[in-house]
From TrEMBL:
This is Triosephosphate isomerase. NCBIfam families: tim (TIGR00419). It comes from Dactylosporangium matsuzakiense. Involved in the gluconeogenesis. Catalyzes stereospecifically the conversion of dihydroxyacetone phosphate (DHAP) to D-glyceraldehyde-3-phosphate (G3P). One of its GO terms (biological process) is glyceraldehyde-3-phosphate biosynthetic process. It holds the Pfam family TIM. PANTHER family: TRIOSEPHOSPHATE ISOMERASE (PTHR21139). GO terms for molecular function: triose-phosphate isomerase activity. Its EC number is 5.3.1.1. SUPFAM superfamilies: Triosephosphate isomerase (TIM). Pathway: Carbohydrate degradation; glycolysis; D-glyceraldehyde 3-phosphate from glycerone phosphate: step 1/1; Carbohydrate biosynthesis; gluconeogenesis. Belongs to the triosephosphate isomerase family.
């Protein structure tokens, strides 16, 4: 809906724990020669590789001046120090990361990340000049109980605690219903629009209408080239956060092309 809203469509590929740095280089190269300059201007295409791939991706994208963005899948809430295994916002910024995924359901589930930590990570990203891709979304039980809108908005409120108006515009929100992730069960365009429309309304209430109009909100969960068009046709949906389908260059390129 970019022509109407003025928001640039964004297709982001969350590779999760897939592809080593050599495979990463091959995939980004293939994306770059599969997509035209025009297509990459119309739609912002972003890859989110594992940490160990980022330096290689940076070198390739910078060296060849590719019109592809990149970022990370996680960030530490801390700035530096004795936090074994963690990666700081400053380190990611130094590698040129523009985006970082925060609050992904896999981290909430497997790494016990709660709303307080998600809020701290959102602030850590913003403090380093990196745009958080803030993931929210309900599990199957909550969907079936009909509480999905309230649940997702509560996650949003908690993640944005004490985040100011000028900062919130830099954030990308991704609505990823947990039951749709990696299951092949994509939300209907209407289901996705219901929650994403409610997220935008909540942003307008918390901040301003103008702010809410500028924040990009994505859908994620079993997005493929054959279902993405109907989803991004919805008035409040500005793109997709793609998992499985993003580690195939041809498949992801088709999704990017359909983002317009
Ligand atoms: P799938 O596209 O594999 O369902 O994953 C979605 C996701 O979790 C993106 O962050």
């Amino acid at each position: 809906m970019a022509e109407v809203t003025g928001r640039r469509p964004l297709m982001a590929g969350n590779w999760k724990m897939n592809l080593n740095h050599l495979e990463a280089i091959a995939l980004v190269q293939k994306l770059a020669f599969t997509l035209t300059e025009q297509q990459l201007n119309d739609v912002e295409a972003v890859v989110l590789p594992p940490f160990v791939d980022i330096r290689s991706v940076q070198t390739l994208i910078d060296g060849d001046k590719l019109l592809i963005g990149y970022g990370a899948q996680d960030i530490s809430a801390h700035t530096a120090g004795a936090y074994t295994g963690e990666i700081s916002g400053a380190m990611l910024a130094k590698l040129g990361c523009q985006y970082v995924v925060v609050g992904h359901s896999e981290r909430r589930q497997y790494h016990a990340e709660d709303d307080t930590l998600v809020n701290a990570k959102v602030k850590a990203a913003l403090a380093s000049g990196i745009a958080p891709i803030l993931c929210v979304g309900e599990g199957l039980e909550i969907r079936e109980s009909g509480e999905h809108v309230g649940y997702t908005l509560a996650q949003l409120d908690a993640a944005l605690e004490k985040v100011k108006t000028d900062e919130v515009e830099k954030i990308v929100v991704a609505y990823e219903p947990v039951w749709a992730i990696g299951t092949g069960k994509v939300a209907t365009p209407q289901d996705a629009q219901e929650v994403i429309g409610a997220i935008r309304t909540r942003l307008a209430e918390k901040y301003t209408g103008g702010t809410a109009d500028r924040v990009r909100i994505l859908y994620g969960g079993s997005v493929k080239h054959d279902n993405v068009a109907a989803i991004i046709e919805q008035p409040d949906i500005d793109g997709a956060l793609v998992g499985g389908a993003s580690i195939d260059a041809e498949g992801f390129a088709r999704i990017v092309r359909l983002g317009k």
